[in-house]
Design a protein that fits this description.
Elements lengths: L2 H14 L2 E6 L30 H4 L2 H6 L1 H15 L6 H10 L4 E6 L5 H5 L4 E3 L2 E8 L5 E3 L19 E5 L8 H12 L4 E5 L6 H13 L3 E4 L12 E3 L3 H12 L11
Parallel strand pairs: 1-2, 1-7, 2-3, 7-8, 8-9
Antiparallel strand pairs: 4-5, 4-6
């Protein structure tokens, strides 16, 4: 099947679908200038931190509890790599589809907040976001646009305790509310599940795609490379997200192509 034929088939699926789950990973934010995992990464691929730690050790829940200055050093570097990034065409077009469909839900591993910045409202940030902080002592929370001006590690203005970002660090459990939201969405049934820019190595990221495949729900993968779910999906687009989504939008909206909207 030619790339054009596959794009047509996927566009037809998305046009007819009223309930769509998008599962996204770091690859969707590449065209916003962010590195892919290890990417958090790309930052620490196959090398140790200056303390001689793996990035999994430095960014663990245990390190945050015992040596927060170390964990924060690398969290701040991750945030700095995201700072100033804007949603790209893929983020914006997913948000636009939310306005047309009965339900569009985004399950994202990304902590960059770009889906929300693009206008998506129904977003499950399974790994949290760098834009929310809370005090490990008193629980006081606050939202921040970026970490500019923060001391590292930052102190709570209420009690003087250490703040931490609302992200899932290595060795920590996933947020229960996020898991419950995902289960609720899936229990209502989907018309299509689309995996974008993720290697799907985590079971809870591959799971919705495999569930859909078992249920006979149309499945799509948008990723230049092979992943853990590639062999199970109905359609594969070996494209980057910011290239594929405008092509699909144009096929779904021939009178209103993405380019006309500046996407």
């Amino acid at each position: 099947m030619s790339p054009s034929t596959t794009l047509d088939a996927v566009a037809d699926i998305l046009s007819r679908a009223q309930r769509i789950l998008f599962v996204t990973g770091a690859g969707i934010s590449v065209d916003s200038g962010l590195p892919t995992y290890r990417g958090i990464g790309g930052l620490y691929h196959d090398r140790l931190t200056e303390e001689g730690l793996t990035i999994e050790e430095a960014l663990s829940g245990e390190m945050m509890a015992t040596r927060p200055e170390i964990a924060w050093r690398y969290i701040a570097q991750i945030e700095a790599s995201c700072r100033g990034a804007k949603p790209n065409a893929a983020h914006r077009l997913i948000a636009a589809l939310e306005q047309e469909k009965a339900l569009v839900c985004v399950l994202t591993q990304n902590v960059d907040g770009l889906h929300r910045a693009a206008g998506s409202r129904n977003v499950i940030e399974i790994h949290g976001t760098v834009h929310r902080l809370h005090c490990m002592s008193c629980g006081q929370g606050r939202r921040v646009e970026d970490y500019a001006g923060l001391s590292i590690p930052p102190e709570c203005p209420r009690c003087g305790g250490i703040l931490r970002p609302d992200v899932v660090l290595f060795g920590e459990a996933l947020p229960e509310l996020a898991i419950e939201r995902l289960e609720s969405v899936l229990s209502q049934g989907m018309d299509a599940v689309v995996s974008i820019g993720t290697t799907s190595v985590f079971p809870y990221i591959a799971g919705p795609v495999l569930w859909a495949a078992r249920e006979g729900t149309p499945t799509v993968e948008i990723n230049p490379g092979d992943t853990q779910v590639s062999q199970f999906v109905d359609h594969r687009l070996r494209m980057c997200a910011a290239e594929a989504l405008p092509e699909l939008w144009w096929r779904m909206h021939p009178a209103d192509p993405a380019e006309d909207r500046g996407w």
